[in-house]
Amino acid sequence: MERETIVAVQKNGDGDLTAFQTDSGRVLDYNQAIQAIHNGEIAGVNTFKGKDGGTYIRGDADGDPTNNLDQLPMF
Fold it and tell me: Which of 22, 28, 57, 65 is 20 to 30 Å from 40 by CA-CA measure?
């Protein structure tokens, strides 16, 4: 199975990521994206537990700030 990558994001008024678009055109809300990442469907990102106990999404560390999720285009 070829894994998708995230190519665009949506943010709320506070600048928090709320939805993701993959290179196949699929649009995922935050919880759907977490599940897809856990299922191994999306490459280049991972999840982590925050200090508040919530699960969050971040790009894999590769030293290239231009492909950080916050830097992706909006859709």
Answer: 65
